[in-house]
Structures are given as structure tokens and as C-alpha cells.
Amino acid sequence: MRLVMKFGGSSVGDGKKIRHVAQLLMKYYEEGNQIVVVTSALGGVTDMLMENANFASTKGKVTLVKEFKTELTNKHHEAVKEAIDNPKIAEEVLQILDIRIDELEKALIGICYLGELTPRSIDYISSYGERLAAPIISGAIRSLGVSSTEYTGGEAGIITTGDYGNARPLEKTYELVEKRLGCRLESQIQVVTGFIGENEDGIITTLGRSGSDFSASILGASLKVDEIWLWKEVNGIMTTDPRIVPEAKTIPRISYSEAMELSYFGANVLHPRSIEPAMREHIPVRVKNTFDPLFEGTLVVADKFQCRHVVKAVSLIKNVALINISGAEMAGTIGTVARLFTTLASAGVNIVMISQGSSESNLSFVVSEAHVEKAVKALHREFNRKIIREIISDKEVCVVAVVGAGMAGTPGVAKRVFGALGNSMINIIMISQGSSQYNISFVVREKDAIPAVRTLHQEFELYNGNGI
Ligand code: ASP
Ligand code: MG
């Protein structure tokens, strides 16, 4: 098979884990598969980079940069020692790392003096996580006797728009990747940095947080692989979070659309944008567990698998807040909603869920908890008590979503959802269902969130394989 395999930050969290990943890759390669690897940064490194870039621009202390440099160097050197046995290869990799860390140090010191951090510099700085991980993984593979080369996303052919922090691949990427990587698939395992690309001027861009899945999907679509494997630390996509319901089961097959609904609503397994390139080439995406490689995981495919019980999964989103706005004048005032959401967009507020009743005199929406203060402030400034009379926010809430393609056109699902919650004495604060009918989402008080998930998992008997 021709495969793209992506490893997340925890899968390559330290040297021991990288060694395990290299052995896993060697096994699949020796079985005759052609493999391109996409790697994330070592767990936590992207956050560290962003935090230190912020420190540099706000505090301007070169001593802090030096401390960070030491921490980063130690972490990656340690990983090399644990992952690579061959001393010559280890030495080569250490040299590459040191050169890159020196460059990073210079950039951070520059930011200290300038005191400003542009989106372009944030992308440049945060790209170092993956650029330090890829040489170690490639070296670990070579140390096991398999030929391997490492590439940045740009070198591999991922050419993007110039939207720093949120870049999108240009159409030419798909051809370019095939040209650059396609010819070497048989002779070696190529390792590509996830998360990053470059724009047409060769400046580094990033594809958004958790963007490595997106990179894998872009490379997979370009190389027309048989499957894209996303190696994570979980047993595939599950009927719900196993920390909430220990009997949660892995869903062996799920459609692209269902997987997208789940990720929209916080399951955090796959981001919708990361499925898109795979979807356009109908390439199945498999979510597997790095620490249980024999387990099949979940296969995300084009077909919609209807099952006897229509609900496949229940997901919970925490760290959200509800905002309710009301005003008698809102009814019939054309353009209010446009103004409302434009104001929120300009303030950089992410909206998770929306609901407006037909009275039109109040509208509720859910935002990321971190955005609630700026959202309320921006709305007060914009409307100044005209049209919108009252703005109330509430942080002590969570969103629960029930997902399944079989729900579309099946009467009685909502009755079961809300009936079961009613029997458990759980109050619903807000409801939203898109007309795709694949997802019913609702807001409950924080204290009711876990009982709500458990109630629904039980109601739809997902624990005995019914979501499957
Ligand atoms: N390292 C990047 C992040 O933490 C991308 C990724 O891990 O997918 O967001
Ligand atoms: Mg909250």
C-alpha cells in the first residue's frame, strides 16, 4: 500500500517514543508499503515556542531567550540520545538541530529588540517545533538501516496562501508534491514537517493549530495514496470520551461528514479542514493508536453507514460560554444579525453555536470561553444599548452534541434525546440542529454536562456497539 502516516505530538513526545515510531515505520516499510511520514513537533514544543515569542515581544529580556534556548536544546538532544543508536547519525542530527536552534535564538533576540511580534514572525518561530522534530525522526529511521530524507512542508511542495497562522494550500501544491516526493517513494521513507508550508515568496507559513493532520491530508491527496493514517494516542474515534464513559467503544467506520460533525463539536479527533483534501480524492483516513498499533482504529470513508441505532457518538465541549442578547427592536430590524456577527468577527471571536427563536427578539450563541469578555465589550461598543437592549453572558455552561448520519430523516431522535435528559432531570438551556440533521447540539449547565453525556450514551446503547 502507498501510505501517508502522521504522528501527533504525544506520539513523538520524547526519544523513547520516537524510537518506537521508527520501529513501527520500519516494520510497515519492510512489509512492502511505501510511506511518507508527517511529524508534529515534540509534545508541548509549539506552545513553548509561542509563549517564548510572546515573552520576547512583551518583556524583551535576552536572558529569557537564552534560558529557553538551553531548555529546547536539552529536550531535543535528550531525544536524539534516546532515539538514535548509530553515533555518526546522532552526531549529524545534533549538528542540524544546533544550527536551527541558533537561528531561532537570533530571531527571538530580534523580537526582544523590536518589541513587536507580527503574524509572519509567529509562523516563523512556531515552525521550529516541527523543524526540530523531523531530523530526529528521519535520523532514527536511518539508524535502523532504512534510507530516509527530511523535508520542510515547503520543500515537499506545500505552497500556500500568505494567510499567516491559517494558510491554505494553493492548487499547484498537489502537482508539486507528487513531483518532489513521488519518485522516491520506493527507495526511502520521506519525513515531512507537519503544520508548515511556504508562500509563493518562500516565506514560512503555518496551516493553523493542530495543522499536521491537514498536512498529511494534503500530501496524501497529492500522492494519491491508498490510505492516510493519523497516529494518535487514542483508540481511534470513539462513541464518546472514555474518561467520561469508560465503556465507550471505538467506531470502526464513520463517514467523512460524520467525522466532521464530531470534530466541529470538540471531539478534537479530526479538524474538518484536515479531511477536505482526502475527501476530494476519496482517500480513506484511518485514525490509529501509536501505543496499540495492532488495533485497527477507525476508518473514515465516503459512504454513510446507516445503522439500526441512528446515533454514533456523543461529544462534549468544555471551555465555552453562552451569550444571550435581547431587545424588542431586534424583531424585524433587517441587518442586525449581520452587524452582530461582523462586530464579533472584527473582535476575533470564534462562534461555536447559534440559535434564534422565531420571535426574533432574542438570539443566543456560544463562543470560546477565552473570547467572551472581548465579545461582550465589542457588542456594547457597537450597539450602545440601541436595538440590542441586554447582553447576558454565562461561562458555567458546556455544549453536548449527538452525532450520526442515520439521524437525518429518522423521526423520534430528538424525542429520545430530550426525553432521556428530562428523565435525568437535566435542564436544556439552548438547542441547535443544522438542517443536515447529522448533529443535535445543546447547552447545559456545567454540572449537568457529564451526566448528560452518560445519559445519552446509555439511551442509545452505544456501550454495546450500537453506534457501530
Ligand atoms: N505542532 C502544531 C500544534 O501544536 C501542529 C500539530 O501538532 O498538528 O498545533
Ligand atoms: Mg464554560
CATH topology of one domain: Carbamate kinase
Instruction: Describe the global form.
Output: globular
Radius of gyration: 24 Å
Q: List unreliable stretches of 5+ residues.
A: none
Q: State the end-to-end distance.
A: 26 Å
Strand content: 15-25%
Describe the structure in your own words.
By secondary structure, the protein is an alpha/beta fold. The protein has a domain of 213 residues: Carbamate kinase (3-Layer(aba) Sandwich). The chain is built from 15 helices and 16 strands. Strands 3-4-2-1-7-9-10-8 form an 8-stranded mixed sheet, with helices on both faces. It has a 6-stranded antiparallel sheet with strand order 12-13-11-14-16-15. It has a two-stranded antiparallel ribbon with strand order 5-6. A hairpin with a 5-residue loop joins strand 15 and strand 16. Helix 3 runs antiparallel to helix 4, helix 4 runs antiparallel to helix 6 and helix 8 packs across helix 9. The longest helix has 28 residues. It is globular. It starts with a strand and ends in a 9-residue tail after the last helix. Bound molecules: aspartic acid and magnesium ion.
Features:
468 residues, alpha/beta, Carbamate kinase, eight-stranded mixed sheet, 15 helices, 16 strands, 42% helix, globular, binds aspartic acid, binds magnesium ion
